[in-house]
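Appendix B, record 7
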Amino acid sequence: MKRSLPVLCLLLALPLCAVSVKAQSTSAGKTAPSIKGVWSIVEMDIGAGDKKETTMPKAFMMYIMDKHYSSIRDLSQREGSTSSGGAYGTTRSFMADAGTYEYDGSTLVVHHMVSMMGGGGTSMTFKVQMEGNDTLILMPQYDKMVMPAKSAAPAAKGPGMGAAPAAKGPMTGSGMAVRYKFKRLE
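Structure tokens (predicted):
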């Protein structure tokens, strides 16, 4: 009888342990897809409402590592345009920035260390959506943009560049980028 009581307790405890382990694995769920990797632009939405248009930028790549990120964008006009300037008769305009980032699963905040906006003290916030593991969608939150108190950087050119946050919420003017869609390269 003395031995049957511990055995009985053990038999009752085993199913409870199994239920507990199963609950922990389901509550944790599947791990969210990682944003780390090499990303290339697929499309970009500019503007809002009737003025919203989806376009394919010439080139835009992001590299997201463990703690740092880097991005580069080609803002020059498409092939066949009649822009002038530069050594070969075309204007090559690009933007690049790099720094650290914070990601909580739904929001990405990039902290520029080097950028066309003057670097230190600037940050940009994006709402993040993943479609599977290989599609990253970033939606700029212009109302959360942080610029240094005295920015000596000239106004940038191109969709979503050189904008100041609106006093009453997100900016979605006709020339503002409101959504970037990237595909994973690596």
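Remarks on this record: Residues 4-28 form the longest helix (25 residues). The chain has one helix and nine strands.
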